[in-house]
Write a structure and sequence with these properties.
With 427 residues, this protein is α/β, with parallel strands linked by helices. Helices cover 42% and strands 13% of the residues.
Length: 427
């Protein structure tokens, strides 16, 4: 009798504890508790899901709105005016996350100021064989060799057209949409592929990206050469100008971090000569820094995340100088904190994008970054993001010394003084 009573009470206690645990997990997930996501939920999911499955499920859940929403209204200090448009905040999601335009509205609800869909190719293609995505956990990095897997222009166009009226209102409110364009792997005419993308998405996007810098499509990066690039961009710009739309999209060029000094000069020369509206700096890197610890570093593909931070920021700095600050830059690569964002901005970026850091820290990262950025702007004497753009290039402004990887991890915002800044993630 006593034994049965004890067993019954133990079952009841287990039920109460189990229910309480489920409620606690559900609550932390719904409210977007930053530490819970980064220290518990994301690591647990990563143990059971391979990287590509986790990516697919993340896009699906975000498209259903099953994510914590942004907690507060963006400060006016975060507002940016560029490409003839207003961005309510400078934090965007990089291409490669929502490849097929399935989760745009959910991403805005997470607090992003802008969303970049793609890469989209004219015709559907599967990309490279699986496995093609690898997490380097000790390095807070990812290697991917997706290879422009795409539903194709027609499918993505139809998907975005169905929400075009919603996007029109979002754009007016400062939430902008970019579409990243690529070529099909077997295409014999790269320029025709990009021109088709401009024609197909010109009425749906606030800006279009000519992506010639992915390391996962054979021959693609050769299009960054001066003469090939001039020819390609001339055709793309001409097609954009032919569009019969009320407001033509800006044209941006996305470049690699692995360029030589001469190649960077050539790119700067071409974009300024043709009047290209902006640069996205940078894509993933084909190089492997000696600091990498994970054995998966030997996998082929593009490396993103914390190890890309310094290389990306250096390229932002160089391209800002080479274009004399006249070509707006979206900085991307290794961003995981507000201090990382400000480092990119001071180097010359007007906007920034995230990707890899979200896979390690989850949706609450967006709110965290914006709060940290706003605080750091005040601490360093800037009234707005625009005032901080290119600050490291101006005489009399103290430059930010680079911080080591050990300094970056977990550094509280309040401890980051007016003479320091960091960096982290992307495509």
């Amino acid at each position: 009798m006593a034994g049965n009573t004890l067993k019954r009470r133990m079952r009841e206690a287990a039920l109460v504890l189990g229910s309480g645990t489920c409620l606690f997990v559900a609550y932390c997930t719904a409210v977007g508790d930053e530490k819970f996501y980064a220290n518990h939920l994301i690591p647990t999911l990563q143990r059971f899901l391979d990287p590509e499955m986790a990516h697919t499920l993340a896009v699906r859940f975000i498209s259903w709105g099953l994510i914590p929403r942004s907690k507060c209204k963006d400060s006016s200090a975060l507002e940016v005016n560029v490409f003839g448009r207003k961005f309510k905040n400078p934090v965007g999601v990089a291409a490669g996350f929502d490849k097929h335009g399935e989760a745009v509205d959910g991403l805005y609800k997470m607090g992003f100021g802008f969303v970049e869909v793609g890469t989209v190719t004219p015709h559907p293609q599967d990309g490279n064989p699986r496995p093609r995505v690898f997490r380097l956990d000790p390095d807070q990095a990812i290697i991917n060799r997706y290879g422009f897997n795409s539903h194709g222009l027609t499918v993505v166009q139809r998907r975005l057209q169905a929400r075009s009226e919603i996007q029109e209102q979002l754009t007016k409110g400062g939430n902008l949409l970019g579409i990243n364009l690529g070529k099909n792997k077997l295409s014999s005419d790269a320029a025709a592929d990009y021109v088709e993308g401009v024609r197909g998405f010109g009425s749906l996007a606030d800006y279009l990206v000519v992506n010639v810098s992915s390391p996962n499509t054979p021959g693609l990066r050769a299009l960054q050469g001066k003469e090939k690039l001039r020819s390609l961009l001339t055709k793309v710009m001409k097609e954009r100008d032919y569009l019969k739309v009320n407001r033509k999209p800006a044209i941006l060029l996305k470049i690699a971090p692995d360029l030589t000094a001469e190649e960077k000069k050539d790119i700067a020369s071409v974009v300024t000569e043709l009047g290209v509206d902006g640069l996205i700096v940078t894509n993933t890197t084909a190089s492997r820094p000696t600091t990498l610890q994970d054995p998966l570093q030997t996998q082929g593909g593009g490396l993103s995340g914390m190890p890309l931070r310094e290389m990306s920021t250096k390229t932002v700095n160089e391209m800002y100088s080479l274009t004399k600050g006249r070509v707006p830059i979206i900085g991307v690569g290794g961003i995981s904190s507000g201090a990382d964002v400000l480092e990119k901005i001071r180097a010359g970026a007007t906007l920034i994008q995230l990707y890899t850091a979200i896979t390690y820290q989850g949706p609450p990262l967006v709110h965290k970054i914006k709060c940290e950025l706003e605080q750091l702007l005040k601490e360093q004497g800037f009234s707005s993001v625009a005032e901080a753009v290119g600050a490291d290039h101006r005489p009399g402004v103290t430059q930010m010394p680079a911080l080591s990887k050990d300094n970056i991890q977990g550094a509280p915002v309040a401890a980051v003084k007016a003479t320091t800044v960091l960096e982290h993630s992307t495509e």
